[in-house]
Amino acid sequence: RMAAEAGRRIWPRPVATLAAPPGDEAGREVLRTAREAGLRPRIDQDNGTVRIRADVPGAEVGPAHLRAMLGLLLQAVRELSGDSDEPTVLRGRTYLVGRRPVAAAGPRSAAVTLDQVGGLSDVVARYREVAVSFRHPAAMARWGARRPQGILMYGPPGTGKTMLARALANEVGADFVEIRTPEILDKYLGGSERNIKRIFREARRYRRPTVMLFDEFDSIISYAGAGGDAASQAVNAVAGIFKQEMNTLFEENPDVIVVATTNFPQRVDASLIRSGRFDLKIAIPAPDETGRAEILTKMVRELIDRHERPGFKMFADDVDPAALAADTAGLTGADLREALRRVQLAKALREAAEGAPPAPIGQDDLREAVAGLRRG
Question: Is the pTM value of this prediction over 0.70?
């Protein structure tokens, strides 16, 4: 009830972009400051929690944005406390300001964001468009626009298709559900079809935005051929049920995004992934030299942010992602992450053996790890 009252007081009517002003001059000043900083705050309420959000590309976040968000938070606290001067009215409640989505209970993957994706700027831009279409339903309805809810990603292994699906879920603010092959395929006649119907039946009941990932889609729904043998008939039956379920899912639950990934798009029946079922078909190529440099830069920065502390330096000053990218032709993002993992493990084992931290990771360490990766 307090959450609902706070929403009513701060913004008298629930709208997606907070067009309605707060109820007093102090609140209006807070909102003006946020808008001058380039923020377009939104409010939503869920099970007693009030969330105030504003989207800014990670690289552009500055002190003005953080001050404005803190002002909005304090205004919300003020409204929650009402006219009471008694401090106990706020006791036991938590107030959090952060740059990344907060992990909620359930299957959401808050550790992966589109800001962490390197070498795929065009793909990231398209995913941000999908997220915008979900965050602004009023604009979509005004123009009668249907947002894409089926996405097929295809490309070589290790190029980040699964990571992109998780990042999309976070960009939308959605839960993430991964459907694995064993959950569908059944050796008994009719079992696979029943499993697909069950999965989609559950999807129709989701009450939060949800990204459903069918990873390695070709292993679940192989090419529906015209053979008359029992195996071909079984494949056709599974594909047919999937088509039927996809045809009605988006109408019955517009908050679900179905993402399918495959390394072998030629193995998937074209009628299964036509527009209307999978509106976006996105190639995820192996990164070029510029892309590898961007991926390495983001990975190194992420590790520094996560692990470096006063008195502990993780990477040496000679680390040059651009130079290393030139030596890693043909490697994918997964390969580069594995090279870093090997160096981290070697340093940790050396510290464990010697009892003191070794020298920071340098360029030669990374080159040696890449050479070892190529050897197998």
Answer: no
